[in-house]
Amino acid sequence: MGNVVQIADLAKFEGQDVTVRGWLYNRTDKGKLQFLLVRDGTGIAQCVAFQKELPAEMFEAARTLPQESSLILSGSVRADKRAPGYPGGYEIGIKELKVVQVAEAYPITPKEHGVEFLMDHRHLWVRSLRQWAILRIRATIIRAVRNWLDDHGYLLVDTPIISPAAGESTSELFEISYFDDKAYLAQTGQLYNEANIAAFGKVYCFGPTFRAEKSKTRRHLTEFWMVEPEMAFFSLEDMMDMEQEFISYIVQCVLEKHKMELGILERDTTHLQRVTAPFPRISYDEAVERLNKLSAEQTDPEQAQLLRIDWGNDFGSPHETALTQQFEKPVFVYHYPSAVKAFYMQPVEGRPEVCRSVDLLAPEGYGEITGGSERIYDAELIEKRVAQIGITRENYAWYLDLRRYGSVPHAGFGLGVERTVAWICGLPHIRETIPYPRMLKRLYP
Ligand code: 4AD
Ligand code: MG
Predict the structure, then answer these.
(1) Closest ligand 1 atom, CA of 414?
(2) What is the Cα–Cα distance from 361 to 354, expressed in whole angstroms?
(3) Which CATH number fits domain 122-280+327-433: 3.30.930.10, 1.10.10.10, 3.60.20.40, 3.30.230.70?
(4) Sign of CA dihedral 184, 189, 194, 198
(5) Per-residue pLDDT tens listing for the chain (445 residues)
(6) How far is CA 54 from CA 63, 84, 93, in A?
(7) Which ligand number lies closest to the CA of residue 416?
(8) Which site from 35, 232, 376, 394 is most exposed, i.e. has the minimal number of CB atoms within 10 Å?
(9) Are 397 and 414 in contact (CB under 8 A)?
(10) Which atom of ligand 1 is nearest to 373's Cα?
(11) CATH number of 3-101
């Protein structure tokens, strides 16, 4: 019995005896030779059981073990370029095999399954190769987010999940009962971030976010993870400068660390390699012009209709998709109409119908991955906006206080982790980017 090692590290143990603990992923029966593909969470390795080298009952176990049975095996590591696996290139000649549990017939087999079936078995599906690759990349994205912010003077300041009032739009709130009161699950930590910048300058919060979105799109979850940086004395332009560095760093971290996982996902990385600062910036006005020009160029009237947009409307997913296809990098769209954005956004000087907002649209049709703005910092104006949208002033009294005690121009944005994962991994739907997705029609497992 050698030391317990991780499959990811097998190369370091060439020629040595090791022990691996894991699950049977697949098996090829060649009579006297049994090729077991074993996963341990860090990788998949080919482990070879040779009849002559094993006690009869161990070889018999190797020959009959069902998929996903748990096991502990020991043997010697040898280099073999042809050995399949992840990372592959090394195999283990089994000297000892101990079965921990013989698995029942596993519901997820190599044959094709429908998405609903797989979603119902998400608790098992996470073991599958593609899901394994996606969720490992997700973890790296989260780590890159934290590393970049921590290294650039942003302080992590946690914001509450249980909130007394809406943070974005009142139509998408999950209500909970809070003893004798009503409360809501957080849609954003932003308003609290705005309090925290006066204490710490540059901050971020990072946590689960809840939106009772009735939309059944490939980009919406009801529970998702959002990182929200907020910066005192930042203009919209300062923020775009920061965002492009931040996003580029995240993408480059994944490219560096996850060649294997991106390979499993068959992700063409040419677009990702181009993700370096600076990113192009266009105004909402220009975006509308581009879309209507594109619409006019369509030969298919249905397509033309889909792309046409009247000034003042928010972009739908076909608009964002078409726009991003015109650029090789993520593109900033700034100065949206105030009417389609949140109450706290600073109006553009001399043109109050548009606001100092910016969305970052990811290329290859992925669309919005961040949304942010300069915030109104004038006490009178923010009072007016709060009154206009008809929210209960007393719930926001603390927020309004911020404009009374040392108010400063400031800006911030939110990055949706799952949309970022979908884009970087090249996934058509957001449901595979989070371990246990919550959607309009999905609350199990
Ligand atoms: O644009 P949003 O709604 O912005 C805010 O919530 C601001 N308070 C953030 C801020 O300025 N601090 O959301 C930000 C991002 C979106 O760009 C998107 O990536 C993601 O959060 N997002 C969702 N992701 C998955 N499912 C949903 N239902 C999402 N809604 C927003
Ligand atoms: Mg948005």
Answers:
(1) 9
(2) 19
(3) 3.30.930.10
(4) positive
(5) 789 999 999 999 999 999 999 999 999 999 999 999 999 999 999 999 999 999 999 999 999 999 999 999 999 999 999 999 999 999 999 999 999 999 999 999 878 899 999 999 999 999 999 999 999 999 999 999 999 999 999 999 999 999 988 777 777 999 999 999 999 999 999 999 999 999 999 999 999 999 998 888 899 999 999 999 999 999 999 999 999 999 999 999 999 999 999 999 999 999 999 999 999 999 999 999 999 999 999 999 999 999 999 999 999 999 999 999 999 999 999 999 999 999 999 999 999 999 999 999 999 999 999 999 999 999 999 999 988 887 888 889 999 999 999 999 999 999 999 999 999 999 999 999 999 999 999 999 9
(6) 12, 22, 10
(7) 1
(8) 394
(9) no
(10) 11
(11) 2.40.50.140
Tracing tokens 């077991």 back to the chain, one arrives at 36
Render 351-375 in DSSP notation, one character per residue.
Answer: EEEEESEEEEEETTTTEEEEEEEEB
